[in-house]
Amino acid sequence: MKKRVYQDGCATAHALDLVGDRWAMPIMRELMLGPKRFTDLRASLPGISANVLTQRLEELEAASILIRRRLPPRPPARSTN
Fold first, then answer.
1. What angle do CA 59, 21, 49 make, to 5 degrees?
2. Under DSSP, is residue 1 helix (H, G, I), strand (E, B) or coil?
3. What's the CA gap between 13 and 24, in Å, rounded?
4. Per-residue pLDDT of the chain (81 residues; tens, 9 = 90+)
5. What is the pLDDT at residue 6?
6. Within its chain, how far is the Cα of 9 from the centroid?
7. Distance from C-alpha of 12 to C-alpha of 1, rounded to nearest angstrom
8. Residue 24: CB atoms within 10 Å
């Protein structure tokens, strides 16, 4: 399926070219709350498939809307002993 592009001089139309795809806005909303790992995004966006999430993240990164960065490792789970 070909991506819809408005190619209009209007700033709003240009923004829709960049972020108008399904799931793009909810992904950006989640990332505005702070950095998240892929699994955290999947958990906070019920209904999104791994393939669609990967595709949207790649598209947003290619458009320089998102910057991928490596997060520090998660702290080890604390035992209850």
1. 75
2. coil
3. 15
4. 556 666 677 888 888 878 888 899 999 999 999 999 999 999 999 999 999 999 999 999 998 999 999 999 988 887 776
5. 65
6. 25
7. 23
8. 19
Q: Are 6 and 14 in contact (CB under 8 A)?
A: yes
Name which of 32, 23, 38 is nearest 71 in CA terms: 38
- Burial of residue 27 (CB within 10 Å: 0-12, 13-18, 19+) is buried
- One-letter identity of residue 39: T
Q: What is the DSSP letter of 71?
A: P
Q: pTM for this one?
A: 0.78
Contacts of 42 (CB under 8 A, 6+ apart): 48, 50, 53
> Are the beta carbons of 66 and 31 closer than 8 angstroms?
yes
Contact 59, 68 (CB under 8 A): no
